Amino acid sequence: MGMFDKIFGKRSSSKLEKEAEPSPEIVIEDSLNSEFISGTFRGSRVMFQSVESPNGEWHCLYASSRSDDGAPIVLVNSSGQVAHAFSVTRVEDAAVANNGTIVVTDIGDATDQDLGGTLVIVDSNGELIVEHGFDANIWRCAITDNGRYASTATHNPDRTVYIFDVDTGGIVTEYETANLNSPPQKFENYDGEEVLYLLDGDSRSRAINFDGETVWRSEELVRKDRYEELRASGKEANLEEALELLEEAYELADSENEKKPVARELGETHWKLAKEIWKEEGDTDEWWANLNQAKMYYMEILPWHDGKKGVAKVQRKQAKYHLKKGNENIALELLQNIATMEDEYDVQLLTDHDKKTITDLS
After folding, report:
1. Is the pTM of this model over 0.85?
2. Each residue of 325-335: pLDDT tens digit?
3. 162: which strand partners?
């Protein structure tokens, strides 16, 4: 049996000849407007889900569970008549255009641990147009109202949106989605141009045209893009400029998951700047200010390991300064703070020299 026969569920003539009274291929038992539709496919009980074309002329019924003949996909017209049916291994998502063209994401056998998936596009006559395999998992898909273009998107490690020209079967656009794993997609018009919206959850995040250019971004995405831009620029800038860029990113962050990485970078930048000031100017007010700022940001990312190490190295530096100035009680308190943190987090932070100093000062 060839791949085309496998996809479309064709059976050999010898098998057909053995069936004196073959049962109907497909029986639909519920209204097409039902949320879930019961039926049979080649004699097996099936629970279908249904998606409707924008003009209401077609329904695509698909079952995510599979039988011996695979997971069935059925095209039904508005009168309830079956146009054709075929099967794939396992359906995750499906969509149907106004001309009856169906796009399906086949995510493969549930027991297969390899990354991968197949985008299948079939026209209203049951003809296979596209069968494109990926080396990454795929989930959602979309198709334009007129059936001319279809799309899907991959998970890590590929993380790319693909737009297909249904007429030619070729890929017209590839767009990397570094921060999104296989986002849902939706074709619509924007400013007189057909575009593909990428969704973050249920919300529109970005619109790309068929040249792979971003033509619209949500306010939240504008914020996130600016946040990432500031962080990236901070890594390339000199220390003082980096502080300004990272502080702006810190203000833009709207969650702990966004704030903590920037706090770590701010802590490291203040620490490096304090070291430069010490070499050039010694123990100035600016040196102390940067040390204290570094410690504040390191404290913010506790219990991260970088936070514990950062707080310890700042307090060790401050303790050494106070020892030189003869402020033994302050130095001892700073080193004992490191020891307390060591006990609290069950991690080694004190050096052998730190331990000896604590013993000598106690």
Report:
1. no
2. 999 999 999 99
3. 152, 174
